[in-house]
Amino acid sequence: MVKKVKAALIIIGDEILSGRTEDANLNHLAIWLGGLGIILDEVRVIPDVGQRIIHTVNECRCSFDYVFTTGGIGPTHDDITAESVAKAFDVPLLLNEEARGLLEDNMGKGNLTEARLRMARIPEGASLIRNPVSSAPGFQMENVFVMAGIPVVMQSMLLDVENRISGGAEILSKAIHVFEGESLFAQMLGEIEECFEHLSVGSYPFYKAGKYGASFVLRSPVKADLDDALKDLKKRITNRGSDYFDGEAPE
Amino acid sequence: MVKKVKAALIIIGDEILSGRTEDANLNHLAIWLGGLGIILDEVRVIPDVGQRIIHTVNECRCSFDYVFTTGGIGPTHDDITAESVAKAFDVPLLLNEEARGLLEDNMGKGNLTEARLRMARIPEGASLIRNPVSSAPGFQMENVFVMAGIPVVMQSMLLDVENRISGGAEILSKAIHVFEGESLFAQMLGEIEECFEHLSVGSYPFYKAGKYGASFVLRSPVKADLDDALKDLKKRITNRGSDYFDGEAPE
């Protein structure tokens, strides 16, 4: 049996929902988790509203092995992720001395204004997640990892998260591409997927410079299955008189 | 009273969750909806799994004025959005003659293979959404709009969606930027937000080329409030001896 470990990402931020900012964390986290053998199984983008954060965190932490949040842990009035996560776990939000120390070391004791001290308020029982870029830490509360929204900061926090989580079998993938409509290959794709227990076959049409094509992506934790399935697919494509292309998807 | 109209977007696609493809529809739809006075209030990204699509569609269509889905309406075995939406509404999925006609016109009758005919299967009672790019239609079922995942196709479908939805008051926004830490401005931002009933003030830190800064974004459906609040904020920033910058956020 192949063990599946699943994660959810909660992106907290009005700026994403208004379209002002394009999220860059989803794709980075998806690829990073994939490398650890963890499946990103759902993403939610929600506004900076306390009740929504509480509800979403509670729903996701019961349904997924790991939950990651990004955004809302800065010093301003709209940064309400820490207090909302504390409420979700029904624990108090306390001034954390370790976090205060990290901020003091980075900013200097005299510069630790009331606003900046907000960033040292951490739910009781949480452990800090180091932020090598700008010191203000994230935190882990059980299976929930609360991280910054700024991509470079979020990515730096993953260094401290990596040794706290563990995945199942790594999902391997192979892709090939055709420059014909995906519908011509629909039947063979379905048939190949049926042949292997843990194989998933995705068909992703593209449309570039007036030309249609499709990428077929085979994914499986079992390398031998993946190799056999790819060989089978290539043979079937050739047999129907079509060409396929290996390597990166066409840009 | 300011009327608020809220929408949710459901992005259906393993390829987004695996990190293979970067979503481009969220940001486009967010901006497009904003222009119509509709607030994008939640986004969910879920895998190509029938039960997940059914559950998510049913949860969202009860909670939001409008629901948009992208992805999973092509001709291959992993395109299960139409059948899942039919199940969510508990109606049969039928071969739609109008949709078949559109496909025939575009592809020629002889080329309408069994796989392509899948794209003419539409839930009973739905109305079609025209696809000027590649003919295979989306559909509207009550307040749920089912669209393609390929960005250029999705965007072309919005032309046919625009006259079917109506928004509340358009949310106007103004932004200014500073090249100091946002924490220095935290108190004034909170105070200004308190002064106006429908005003929201967001603070979005950035970190570019080793330099910190923040964008302050004021949003309100009431233009006079927005102007007054911006004037107040600029005055307070100047009074504390700081500079602000108008216009686009720094890249």
SSE blueprint and pairings:
Two copies of one chain form a homodimer.
Chain A: E1 5-12, H1 14-17, H2 25-35, E2 38-46, H3 50-63, E3 66-70, H4 81-89, E4 93-95, H5 97-107, H6 114-117, E5 121-123, E6 127-129, E7 138-141, E8 144-147, H7 151-161, E9 172-178, H8 186-195, E10 200-208, E11 211-220, H9 223-239
Helix pairs in contact in A: 3-4, 8-9
Q: Which parts of chain A are unreliable, with pLDDT below 50 for 5 consecutive residues or more?
A: none
- Using CB atoms under 8 Å apart, which protein chain pair has the greatest interface? A-B, 70 and 70 residues
Strand order of the biggest β-sheet of chain A: 2-1-3-8-7-6
Total discrete domains of chain A: 2
Which structural category fits the helices and strands of chain A?
alpha/beta
How helical, in percent, are the residues of chain A? 25-40%
Q: What is the element string of chain A, with H for helices and E for strands?
A: EHHEHEHEHHEEEEHEHEEH
What proportion strand of chain A?
25-35%
* General form of chain A: elongated
The CATH architecture designation of the largest domain in chain A is 3-Layer(aba) Sandwich
